[in-house]
Input
Amino acid sequence: MSAKATAAATGRGHAVPRGADRLPWLTYRFRLLGMGLGGLCIGAVLLENGANPPTWGLLAFTALLWPHLALQVARRSASPYRAERRNLLLDSAQAGFWVAMMQFNLLPSVLLFTLVTVDKISTGIPRLWLWSLPAFASGLLCGALATGFAVRLETSMTELLFSLPVLTIHTIGVALAVSHMGQQIREKNRQLDELSRTDSLTGLHVRRHWLKLADRALRQHREEGVPMTLLLLDIDHFKVANDRHGHSQGDEVLRTVAAAIRATVGEAGEAGRYGGDEFGLVLPGTTPAQARALAESLLEAIRQAGVAALPGARLTASIGIAPARATHATVEQWIDEADVALYRAKDAGRDRIGA
Output
């Protein structure tokens, strides 16, 4: 290979992916399994070919010692990731060598080539399996030179039986590992989705996601006639308190109000941080009278939470209530109506409900 190709294959000149230095540990199990099972398959062929002691010694190195040596080499390297990429190419070179040493015995040779190629693909490293082909061919040439290019394609029943563990156990092992990785990816995606929908400070829905829920509730009201009520809550004098006592105190106020909302609303509705010190709540299946009763409980919960969490400070909020109507063409119109009700509550002296 050219210098550029070699650099691409071994990882030199390329940024190491985050967490990639765990690669030696991840591939160690597959190398241990693959080399061990491959050794059985190769050994059956060598036995029938009447191999000499040095050949058996080389097989012992490949099947028994190489997996552990490769791990130690990668661990002690300044870049375990790049060292492991080189090890993976050496795996292919050794596989090519043993294909020739088996005199190209058809079934074991095909299995061995497939095994090392699948291992490269399963690492997820782009094009690594392509870079492994020249390494495989180099090993193949070395082995062929050692055997005088001897060829025996026929596979005996004994060789077939010793090839089956490679076909079954290794394939199942790779499938289980890929399945486990898939489960981890799905869980990570679920966590990322949860993070994208949750406000990190308050633990409530972020504005974008809450608006989607509100829009869904409005559509359900229009299509099915289910009563829906929207509440907008604004913390009284929040900006003054935030400027006077600092942002850390302001954050504590937001967390306290959010906790009161969660405790009061629970599973009865969807709550989100609408912006700054303003919160939105959608209450499915709730009439305006029921929503007003819940809002009264919420205002009292905020007062009590303020006494417990913010000694010496008075924590209150104002709430605007708007029932969903068939005349609301968009969720923005519904929110605007609640916003008007909220400002009525503020104009009337705050710490109260507007409708």
User: Anything to note?
Assistant: The chain has two domains: 3-195, 207-354. The mean pLDDT is 89.
